[in-house]
Automatic annotation (TrEMBL):
The lineage of its organism: Eukaryota, Metazoa, Chordata, Craniata, Vertebrata. This is ribonuclease H. It is an enzyme of class 3 (hydrolase). Residues 217-396 form the Reverse transcriptase domain. Gene3D superfamilies: 3.30.70.270, Acid Proteases (2.40.70.10), HIV Type 1 Reverse Transcriptase, subunit A, domain 1 (3.10.10.10). InterPro entries: DNA/RNA_pol_sf, Peptidase_aspartic_dom_sf, Retrovirus_Pol_polyprotein, Rev_trsase/Diguanyl_cyclase, RT_dom, RT_RNaseH_2. Keywords: Endonuclease, Hydrolase, Multifunctional enzyme, Nuclease, Nucleotidyltransferase, Transferase. Belongs to the beta type-B retroviral polymerase family. HERV class-II K(HML-2) pol subfamily. Transmembrane segments: none annotated. Its EC number is 3.1.26.4. GO terms for molecular function: nucleotidyltransferase activity; RNA-DNA hybrid ribonuclease activity. It comes from the Eukaryota. Pfam families: RT_RNaseH_2 (PF17919), RVT_1 (PF00078).
Length: 506
């Protein structure tokens, strides 16, 4: 697609209308051409050529009146999302395509074209330095299907059908505008730029990579780059058998100044749920891609593949400050609602209420704010008006908070670790639920003691084996934790031994 924008000139003020349409690339055309009807429609200024040029088709038959007598002023036009330049066109008539880019344009830019697919694949090194610029955020036009899909209405309660835009998949594919909360990447002083390696990809992964690059370029989420930095690109498997693209940002993260914004303490937030009987869970769609990289920092996110060198215009996964930056945005959006009907942890949102009437009002307020801040939700992962929901590994109801049965099953089926790393994974997993297990430190003590001194080899004793099985059994008998009632008295339980001390409020 060719985007053609008329510029303001010194001689006259002309319309800034934009023409978007197909352009024919023709190596047999000796000049660049534009149809006279389009020139007249857009009010493009033209001038009379000093001498006319004869113009014929491949069969030597004249095109239009057979001569080119007029030329446009310099026009600012854009090919795709990134390629910008100024160019004057000869004006003719009777063109099948309104714009023809001829041999002079091809010689100047020397693009790589796939004649099999009919697509422009890659720009020349000259274009990388001079013609490729930031993409302009493209406006999204929401179709009727997108706004009122019958299947979507079937899942969405009728109280929220006027917020269908919030559940749009199309709008997520658009490039967002720069905002005050853009992701900044400040580098530590006197550090070297990371230069990651290119990861080998299988045939299936190579095809997935090409599709990802094509889609991300079309959305404006990435752009070609000449940055001296580099990070590797690879895939990890999804649960559904698909492939998830990943960038190895370990080198960049090592030299990035940390953003010290705290993440929400979910267990503490869950203590606000007393009396709640109705719950709604929302899951943001492509959350990180809804935030821009701070202007001027894009080159730091560069990654390289076998098909080229690219940098992100939106915040990718893997950056050390990504979670904190997005949490700061979410907290800003829901600042006055947090702890008063809303819990928000990165891209997961829980709305809780004591009555249905109050709940509908609160959910509408949340959806309204998401719409105002151009944040979008995965309708297929939402749960509305439920007496019980699973949220961030916890099962929540009016009775209290309990462990997710899926996680409990994972622990009970966990095989005995055979390495230090496997033991660390097990303890990290169980530690998440330690508040459900009385005397967790004592039960897990024989296991945690193995890791003291950072051993390289696992020493698996009978005592460790017994503790491992005992800890697994604790998960099958864990209680439901009731929502605390601040109107009732609390008891502080403390304990201390030669190995440690602790306290709990019960």
């Amino acid at each position: 697609m060719l985007q053609l924008r008329v510029l303001r000139t010194l001689e006259s003020l002309v319309s800034r209308e934009i023409f978007i349409g197909p352009a024919l690339i023709d190596s047999g055309a000796a000049v660049n051409l534009i149809d006279g009807a389009l020139v007249e429609e857009l009010g493009i200024p033209t001038f009379l050529c000093v001498s006319s040029l004869r113009i014929t088709a491949i069969d030597s038959q004249p095109i239009g009146e057979g001569y080119l007598r007029h030329q446009t002023e310099l026009l600012d036009f854009q090919v795709g999302l990134f390629h910008h330049e100024q160019l004057a066109f000869y004006v003719t008539s009777s063109l099948v395509n309104p714009v023809i880019l001829g041999f002079p344009w091809l010689r100047r830019h020397d693009p790589q074209i796939s004649w099999r697919s009919g697509e422009l694949v890659r720009w020349s090194p000259t274009c990388l330095k001079g013609c490729l610029r930031d993409p302009v955020p493209r406006p999204c036009r929401t179709s009727r299907v997108d706004r009122a899909t019958p299947a979507a209405h079937g899942h969405l309660p009728h109280q929220y059908t006027d917020f269908m835009e919030v559940f749009s998949e199309e709008r997520v594919a658009c490039l967002p505008s720069h905002q005050v909360w853009d992701c900044a990447i400040d580098l530590l002083p006197n550090t070297s730029l990371p230069k990651g390696r290119i990861y080998p990809l299988s045939l299936l992964e190579s095809k997935a990579m090409e599709e990802y690059i094509k889609t991300a370029l079309a959305a404006g989420h990435i752009r070609p780059s000449t940055s001296p930095a580099a990070a590797g690109f690879f895939f990890v498997g999804k649960r559904d058998g698909g492939l998830r693209p990943c960038i190895d940002y370990r080198g960049l993260n090592a030299i990035t100044v940390r953003y010290p914004y705290p993440l929400s303490l979910v267990p503490a937030a869950l203590e606000q749920l007393r009396g709640s009987r109705v719950f709604t869970k929302l899951d943001l769609r492509s959350a990180y891609n809804l935030m821009r990289i701070r202007e001027g920092d894009e080159w730091k996110t560069v990654f390289h593949t076998t098909s080229g060198h690219y940098e992100y215009c939106v915040m990718p996964f893997g950056l050390t400050n990504a979670q904190a930056v997005f949490q700061a945005l979410i907290n800003g959006v829901f600042q006055d609602l947090l702890g008063k009907g809303v819990i928000a942890y990165i891209d997961d949102i829980l709305v809780y209420s004591t009555s249905m009437e109050e709940h509908v009002r609160m959910v509408r307020e949340v959806l309204c704010r998401l719409q105002q801040h151009h944040l979008y939700v995965k309708l297929e992962k939402c749960e509305f008006h439920r007496p019980t929901v699973t949220f961030l590994g916890y099962v929540i109801s009016r009775h209290g908070v309990e462990m997710d049965v899926v996680k409990v099953q994972a622990v009970t089926e966990w095989p005995a670790p055979t390495s230090v790393r496997e033991l660390q994974h097990f303890l990290g997993f169980t530690n998440f639920y330690r508040r459900f297990i009385r005397n967790y430190s004592s039960v897990a003590g024989p296991l945690t003691s193995i890791l003291r001194g950072k051993p390289k080899k696992l020493t698996w004793t009978d005592q460790a084996r017994t503790a491992f099985q005992q800890l697994k059994n604790c998960f099958t008998t864990a209680p439901i934790l009731r929502h605390p009632d601040p109107d009732l008295p609390f008891m502080v339980e403390v304990d201390a031994s030669s190995s440690g001390l602790g306290a709990v409020l019960s």
